[in-house]
Amino acid sequence: MAYTRIHAIKETVQKALKYICNPEKTDGQILIDSFACGIETAHYDFMDTLLKSSGVGDKQAFHLIQLFAPGEVDFDMAHQVGIELANKLLENKYSYVIAMHIDKEHCHNHIIFCAVDNVEHKKQ
Q1: Position 39 pLDDT exceeds 80
Q2: What pLDDT is stored for residue 29 in this prediction?
Q3: What is the value of pTM for the model shown?
Q4: At what angle do helices 42-51 and 13-20 cross, to 10 degrees?
Q5: Geometric angle at alpha carbon 97, from 19 and 84, rounded to 5°
Q6: Residue 80 contacts by C-beta under 8 Å, 6 or more apart in sequence?
Q7: Are 78 and 3 in contact (CB under 8 A)?
Q8: What is the DSSP letter of 30?
Q9: What is the pLDDT of residue 124?
Q10: How far apart are alpha carbons 105 and 110 in whole angstroms?
């Protein structure tokens, strides 16, 4: 059974995206996907969306980590489960980047999603 945790990103979206998309952790960036943003341009896409919001607060994005026990699933299945989680949780409203890290004995997804939705421009 997967374990998840989440935290807010207030200032370092670009740094967080760079970390999760690291080719050494993602099998040469093969295990990276995105929704409603470009992988290479996600930081700018998020900032553009944040400017459309009238919401208050300093949260720019959220970083969700989904960890699997060693041997629980293979990399491809874990990545697919992460995409399904992001789509269900974010209801196809929020831009996100998901990256599967394979540099540990357990595989784990990193999902960074914008704090503002793309539909009503509401800030979380």
Answers
A1: yes
A2: 83
A3: 0.94
A4: 150
A5: 125
A6: none
A7: no
A8: T
A9: 85
A10: 16
Helices (H), the chain: 13-20, 42-51, 75-90
User: Hey, what amino acid is at 47?
Assistant: M
Longest dimension (CA), the chain: 45
Q: Report how far residue 16's alpha carbon sits from residue 21's, in angstroms, rounded to the nearest whole number.
A: 9
Taken in order of first residue, the domains within the chain and their CATH numbers are 3-114 (3.30.930.30)
Encoded amino acid at 69, one letter: A
What sign results for the dihedral spanned by CA atoms 30, 98, 64, 80?
negative
**pLDDT beyond 80 at 1:** no
Report which residue type is found at 31: L
Confidence band, pLDDT 50/70/90 cuts, at residue 28? confident
Question: Please, which contacts does 78-84 make with residues 24 or more away whose CB atoms are closer than 8 Å?
Answer: 78/107, 78/108, 78/109, 79/31, 79/33, 79/109, 81/2, 81/109, 82/109, 82/111, 83/33
Q: Is 123 helix (H, G, I), strand (E, B) or coil?
A: strand
Question: pLDDT tens for residues 64-112?
Answer: 999 999 999 998 999 999 999 999 999 999 999 999 999 888 899 999 9
